[in-house]
Design goal:
768 residues, mainly alpha, 68% helix, elongated, disordered N terminus
């Protein structure tokens, strides 16, 4: 590439490559002594909006420079800039930046070179040139423009500030021009290189895998007479770059990263605890726990400082995998190398032990903390540790021990229970149906000055609703509102579900409307809960209206909600609406699942449309869905309603032998009832034997169907045997059982057998 070699203005390839950014007229420069380290950086430029007001000379100069470049009043401009003594060099930087474009700034550079006093020219030029670099970096095609500017500065020996050179290193690194960045870096005097420059350059080398070059830079920084040798700056720079590389700033090759890590340690550069912890965390996230552990040990063996934090990171990852054996090994190693665990270490251990329901082990660790045994565990437990233990005890039903810990915590100075502490215990009592104790603890909490939050409210309201205290839940909600505690969508959802479960849909709908009026917008779960309750109760018009509201609010029906609607319409014999809902479901991109097909199969089975039911079953299998016991039960029920017991039994056998789907009591009852109704009592008795073999528990309905069939056949002996079996399975007779047996046994003079049966005594052993 040919550069300008004279003061004449010519159009050269260099100029073409920089257009429209660089003006040819700006380039007739005479040689200057090249120096990269003797000129101070310009003062920080003010905001562009203020540049024309802070310095009147800058403002006047920019006003004069607004004229076309070939008509600048150079005499007036020279008088303005060079007549005062001394002239602040920073003005020249501000003027160049104020021109707003690199080509205009280069024209100004030429003016400064031609008109400034010779002894001041280098310092003025270096400030202007730095502004040219900044302007060029903001323009399109900046990569090529900056490269040409750098070449120009070298050819003409334009002095550059360390700031300008740092900018070039930064921009070349950003553009992936590593060789160019290296060339600039090598040109900078070693004594002028500061930590920021090293950090930029090392980051560039790391991003592009130039590990050998990075090692050379480290060796330079660690030389005996280097100003960095006695500081931790090299370690910070290199380990920070290593961490960025590991986090994805580059290809993240872990073998290379770990290898470089080791080389840094060999040179006596060590990461601080925070950086080491971050490196360890990234390796652990990638599944490299073993490698992370090796790095920690290598730092220790190399004489580097290590605290508990990196060990805590490894303990967290091992805890997620429930690898308590290796967690114990880490703790043993910490003791061996005399690194005392901190409160975070112990919190990690206790937290993961409690989450895995190893509460006794967690309590053992806790006791060792409190008793300060000679094993390094002498930290004072804090509120977080107490909360973990109380929550763990409550989750395994050990509420009394949790309450005792709360009492100890209250007595311990400096460690007071908070709202989370109380919420854990209140939630435990609610789940164990001890609502009164939960409420008592709630009022104790208030007396202790711990303010309940919406989580507390939700725990108590949900607990009351689940255990039949819906009215009390409403009263409690009203009380909390009076105390300024506002419910959220979860509070209302619990109440809506509870009222749906007791068929009080008017109250459920009223709460739903109240939720919206109070500024608490219903979420999708609130809508789904109400729709599900309405569908189960057969109130399909209301369910459809709520579904319409749901879509208007910007939510979408999910597969469960569609299934509830389709199932509800089927139960109400509204097949057209069910198909319409299925069509909407598929057009919305929600794929029907097994439950969707089961709803339709049940409908067609009950209505006797077995052709369509069989077609649906085949379609279901073709779509890759596996039929369930409900799917087969719907078909079996349909054939039994048609008294086609042979086809029903064929499906039953296929279900057991081909599909390997375990049957249930409901299907056996349907078949036994159908066989007895069709005078095939032997087959029904065989089925109950089959139930025993497959360990399917019969119920009262099973025996009632058999008693009807046996009565038709007048098989007393078999009936007595079934009465004994009924007692063996603890199936209590209902009014249907007593009606059948009383009428039959009274007619044949076996009232004594009936009396023994009712009292639970053996019947078949008695003499008829």
């Amino acid at each position: 590439m040919r550069l300008l070699r004279s003061a004449s203005v010519q159009s050269t390839p260099l100029l073409h490559s920089l257009k429209p950014h660089l003006n040819p007229a700006a380039l007739h420069l005479s040689p200057f002594l090249r120096s990269f380290s003797t000129y101070p950086d310009p003062e920080p430029e003010p905001e562009p909006s203020r540049q024309n007001h802070d310095d009147p000379i800058v403002a006047q100069a920019l006003s004069l420079l607004q004229a076309p470049e070939n008509s600048w009043n150079t005499a007036e401009l020279s008088h303005l800039l060079f007549s005062s003594s001394p002239t602040a060099p920073a003005r020249f930087s501000k003027i160049a930046l104020g021109l707003g474009a690199s080509d205009k700034a280069l024209k100004f550079l030429d003016f400064v070179r031609s008109n400034s006093p010779r002894e001041d020219a280098p310092v003025f030029l270096c400030h202007v040139f730095q502004s040219v670099v900044k302007l060029a970096s903001r323009e399109a095609g900046w990569e090529k423009a900056l490269l040409e500017l750098y070449k120009l500065s070298k050819q003409r020996d334009i002095p550059l500030t360390i700031n300008a050179l740092t900018l070039l290193v930064s921009f070349f690194g950003r553009a992936g021009m590593v060789d160019e960045a290296a060339s600039v870096f090598d040109d900078i005097d070693r004594n002028a290189r500061d930590g920021h420059l090293y950090e930029l350059y090392v980051g560039t080398l790391f991003r592009h895998g130039r590990f050998e070059g990075a090692l050379k830079v480290l060796d330079e920084m660690l030389e005996p007479h280097s100003r960095f040798a006695a500081s931790d700056v090299p370690g910070k720079i290199f380990f920070s770059a290593l961490l960025r590389r590991l986090q994805g700033d580059g290809d993240g090759n872990e073998d290379e990263i770990v290898g470089f890590f080791m080389k840094l340690l060999e040179r006596g550069a060590f990461p601080d605890s925070i950086t080491l912890s971050k490196i360890i965390k990234n390796l652990c996230r990638n599944g490299e726990i073993g490698r992370a552990w090796d790095l920690v040990l290598q730092v220790i063996q190399s004489g580097g400082p290590v605290e508990a934090a990196p060990f805590n990171v490894i303990l967290v990852e091992l805890g997620k995998r429930l690898d308590f054996k290796r967690m114990n090994e880490v703790m043993i190693k910490m003791k061996e190398i005399n690194i005392p665990p901190d409160i975070v270490t112990l919190g990690i251990l206790i937290n993961h032990l409690c989450k895995s329901r190893r509460v006794d082990d967690a309590m053992e660790v806790f006791d060792r903390i409190c008793t300060k045994q000679e094993d390094g565990l002498s930290c004072k437990p804090d509120t977080v540790i107490y909360n973990c233990l109380i929550d763990g005890l409550c989750k395994v039903g050990r509420l009394d021990e949790g309450a005792e810990l709360l009492r100890k915590m209250t007595l311990q100075g400096g460690c007071k229970p908070n709202v989370i502490t109380y919420n854990c215990l209140i939630d435990g009592y609610c789940k164990c149906c001890e609502i009164d104790k939960a409420c008592q603890l709630f009022y104790q909490m208030s007396e202790e000055g711990v303010q309940p939050n919406v989580v507390t409210l939700n725990i108590l309201v949900d607990g009351m609703c689940k255990f039949g205290r819906v009215g009390r839940a409403l009263e409690f909600l009203k009380e909390m509102k009076g105390r300024g505690l506002s419910p959220n969508v979860r509070t209302y959802t619990s109440l809506i579900k509870a009222f749906c479960n007791v068929n009080n849909f008017e109250k459920a709908m009223e709460l739903f409307r109240e939720m919206s009026r109070s500024g608490c917008s219903p979420d999708s779960i609130a809508y789904y809960t109400l729709i599900s309750g309405l569908c189960n109760a057969g109130r399909m018009d209301d369910a459809g209206s709520v579904a319409t509201e749901l879509k208007a609010a910007g939510f979408s029906l999910d597969v469960v909600c569609y299934n509830n609607l389709i199932g509800g319409f089927c139960r109400k014999n509204k097949l057209e609406e069910a198909y319409e809902m299925l069509k909407e479901m598929e057009s919305s991109g929600v794929k029907p699942d097994t439950i969707t097909y089961n709803c339709l199969l049940s409908y067609f089975g009950k209505t006797g449309n077995l052709t369509t039911a069989n077609k649906l079953m085949r379609q279901m299998i073709d779509k890759g869905l596996v039929p369930t016991v409900v799917s087969y039960g719907a078909l079996i029920h349909g054939y039994c309603l048609k008294n086609n017991v042979e086809e029903a039994m064929k499906i039953f056998r296929d279900m057991n032998s081909v599909s390997k789907i375990p049957t249930n009591t409901v299907i056996y009852n349907i078949l036994i009832e159908c066989l007895c109704r069709n005078d095939k009592v032997d087959g029904a008795c065989s089925l109950i034997d089959d139930m025993m073999e497959k360990r399917v528990r019969p119920n009262t309905t099973t025996f009632n169907a058999l008693f009807r069939g046996l009565r038709q056949k007048n098989w007393l002996k078999k009936a007595f045997e079934m009465m004994d079996r009924m007692n063996e399975h603890a199936c209590k007779p209902d009014y249907v059982t007593m009606e059948i047996l009383t009428e039959w046994l009274s007619a044949v003079g076996e009232v004594g057998k009936l009396k023994n049966f009712v009292q639970g005594y053996e019947v078949s052993a008695c003499t008829a």
